[in-house]
Specification:
Blueprint (H helix, E strand, L loop, with lengths): L19 E6 L2 H9 L6 E7 L5 E6 L9 E6 H4 L5 E9 L4 H12 L18 H12 L8 E4 L4 E4 L2 H5 L4 E5 L8
Antiparallel strand pairs: 1-2, 1-5, 2-3, 3-4, 5-8, 6-7
Helix pairs in contact: 3-4
């Protein structure tokens, strides 16, 4: 599935389980999500394995045609392929311990193959951001992020966007080294 990564993987710093990988996708859907969320990113996943290669677990509609509309594992090289990504950024949450990040990773990987459900806050949902937020909340019940209120013809209600993660002040940007949520 790899068509060329937008970043040379050897240029990345050492990643850890629990790191967040943001992506601005190439699809029309990705552009819409980024525009509505006023974000540089349309998608987010979590590093859930680093050996023998970096694996990102995320809820997606169409990253892999064999596994559409579900939670999947993707190799970082595929997640960041120029077929799927215009840009990526990686951040490390500083507010979580290593043990919490391990448990979050386990929670997220236990969701593999569960269906992608894009729905507003008060309805059952499972999409890229809620997959991560729900796992973090199990470890830190006081964890919260701002949900974006949307009033569009197709979408109405509150949705959680990747920008909410990017705007946290208790994360360390790893890649690009000078990244910020607003650059």
């Amino acid at each position: 599935m790899t068509t060329g990564a937008i970043v040379e993987l050897h240029q990345l710093p050492a990643l850890k389980i629990g790191d967040w990988v943001f992506r601005q996708g190439t699809s029309v859907e990705s552009e819409l999500i980024a525009n509505i969320g006023q974000s540089r990113f349309s998608h987010i996943g979590v590093v859930t394995a680093i050996e023998p290669e970096v694996i990102i677990t995320h809820a997606t509609t169409n990253d892999d045609p064999n596994y559409s509309n579900q939670v999947i594992n993707s190799r970082l090289i595929d997640f960041s392929s120029n077929q799927l990504a215009r840009r990526i950024a990686i951040a490390r949450p500083q507010f979580l311990s290593t043990e919490q990040q391990q448990r979050i990773s386990q929670h997220i990987t236990a969701k593999i193959s569960q269906p992608f459900v894009l729905s507003q806050r008060q309805h059952p949902h499972l999409y890229c951001t809620t997959l991560i937020a729900d796992a973090i909340t199990e470890q830190q019940p006081d964890f919260s992020l701002p949900w974006l209120s949307i009033d569009q013809p197709v979408f109405r209600g509150e949705y959680l966007h990747p920008q909410a993660f990017a705007e946290r002040t208790d994360i360390e940007w790893l890649y690009p080294p000078t990244n910020s949520s607003t650059e």
